[in-house]
Design brief:
Protein name: ABC transporter permease
Number of helices: 15
Shape: globular
Organism: Endozoicomonas montiporae
Membrane topology: Multi-pass membrane protein
Radius of gyration: 24 Å
Family: Belongs to the binding-protein-dependent transport system permease family.
Order of helices and strands: HHHHHHHHHHHHHHH
CATH class: Mainly Alpha
GO cellular component, one term: plasma membrane
C-alpha cells in the first residue's frame, strides 16, 4: 500500500498549488486584485467583437447625431450608451474595448521584439566578451542616451512625412511595434549580459564545453534558462512602458489613426472637448489606461520581490 502511495503521480495543478509562487500569490491581496483586474481587462479586450455593444469600425452602426452623448448614468445620458459617445458618435464602451486590444497588442509584441533583440545581443556580449562585448555595449550606451519617445517621434514623423499619411495609417501598428521594440532592447541586453557574466564561470558551463557542445547551444539551452528571473521582471515593466509610449505617441498624432483608435488615440481625440463639457471622451479612456498600467506595474513589483531572495519575505 505504501508503495502505491509513493508512486502515485502528482497532478500539474497540485504541483502549482504547492509551489512558492502560488504560496506567495495567495497571501498577497494586492497581487491577487491586480491579477484579477488585469485578466478581466485582457479578457474583455480579446472578446471585444463578442461583448462590445457595437462595432466602432463599422460606419453603418455610427450616427453622427449621437456624437458627444454623456454616459447613461448621468442626468442627460442615453441608456443606449453606458459610457456615452465620442465626437464621431461611436459608443465609447465599444471603442474602449477595441482600443484596449490594440494597446495591449502593441505593448506585448513590442516587448517580444525588445526581448528577442536584447536577449540575443546580451547573451552574445556576455558569453564571448572581449571586443565584441565592448562594441555591443557601446551601441547600447549610445542608444540609451536617447529617450525612447525622442527616437520614436523622429522616426515616425519622418516616415509619415516621406510616405504620406495614408500609407502610415495602414502600417501604424507595425511601425509602433518596431519603433518601441527597437528603441528599448538595451534594457534587456545589459541585464542579460550581467547574468551571463556570472553564469558562464559555473561548473555546468565548463562541463558543457568539455562535452563539445557548441556556443549557441550552451548559451540558449544552458545559460539562458538560468537567467529567466530578471527577464520576467523586466518584461512586466516593459509592457507597461510600451503601452504608455504608444499612448503618448497617439496623443501626439503619431500613433494609431482615428479610424482604429487605441486608448491613447481616444484620449487625444477627446482632449479638445474636455473643457466644453464632454469630459467623458478623455477621462474614461484615461482612467482605463491608468488602471491597466497600474496593475501591470503592481504585478511586476510582486514578481520582482518574489524572485529576489533579498526582498522576498515569504
Amino acid at each position: 500500500m505504501s508503495e502505491l502511495i509513493m508512486h502515485t503521480p502528482v497532478s500539474r495543478w497540485q504541483r502549482v498549488k504547492e509551489s512558492t509562487i502560488w504560496y506567495s500569490f495567495t497571501r498577497d491581496w494586492v497581487a491577487m486584485v491586480s491579477a484579477a483586474i488585469f485578466l478581466l481587462m485582457v479578457g474583455a479586450a480579446l472578446l471585444a467583437p463578442v461583448i462590445a455593444p457595437t462595432n466602432p469600425y463599422d460606419l453603418a452602426t455610427i450616427d453622427i447625431m449621437d456624437s458627444e452623448l454623456p454616459p447613461a448614468w448621468t442626468e442627460y445620458g442615453d441608456e443606449r450608451f453606458l459610457l456615452g459617445t465620442d465626437d464621431q458618435g461611436r459608443d465609447l464602451l465599444s471603442t474602449i474595448l477595441y482600443g484596449a486590444r490594440i494597446s495591449l497588442t502593441i505593448g506585448v509584441f513590442a516587448v517580444l521584439l525588445q526581448a528577442a533583440l536584447g536577449i540575443t545581443l546580451g547573451l552574445t556580449a556576455g558569453y564571448f566578451g572581449g571586443r565584441l562585448d565592448s562594441f555591443l555595449m557601446r551601441i547600447a550606451d549610445i542608444q540609451l542616451s536617447f529617450s525612447t519617445m525622442m527616437v520614436a517621434i523622429v522616426v515616425l514623423a519622418v516616415f509619415q512625412a516621406s510616405f504620406g499619411s495614408e500609407l502610415y495609417n495602414r502600417l501604424a501598428m507595425l511601425m509602433l511595434i518596431l519603433v518601441i521594440g527597437i528603441a528599448e532592447w538595451p534594457q534587456y541586453a545589459r541585464t542579460i549580459r550581467a547574468s551571463v557574466l556570472a553564469e558562464k564561470k559555473k561548473e555546468y558551463v565548463e562541463a558543457a564545453r568539455v562535452m563539445g557542445l557548441g556556443s549557441r547551444r550552451i548559451m540558449f539551452r544552458h545559460i539562458l534558462p538560468n537567467c529567466l528571473s530578471p527577464i520576467l521582471v523586466i518584461s512586466t515593466v516593459q509592457i507597461a512602458n510600451a503601452i504608455i509610449s504608444e499612448a503618448a505617441l497617439s496623443f501626439l498624432g503619431l500613433g494609431m489613426p482615428v479610424s482604429e483608435p487605441s486608448l491613447g488615440a481616444l484620449i487625444s481625440s477627446g482632449f479638445q472637448y474636455i473643457f466644453s463639457g464632454s469630459w467623458w471622451i478623455t477621462v474614461i479612456p484615461g482612467v482605463v489606461l491608468v488602471v491597466l498600467v497600474l496593475v501591470i506595474n503592481l504585478l511586476g513589483d510582486w514578481l520582482r520581490d518574489l524572485l529576489n531572495p533579498k526582498l522576498y519575505k515569504g
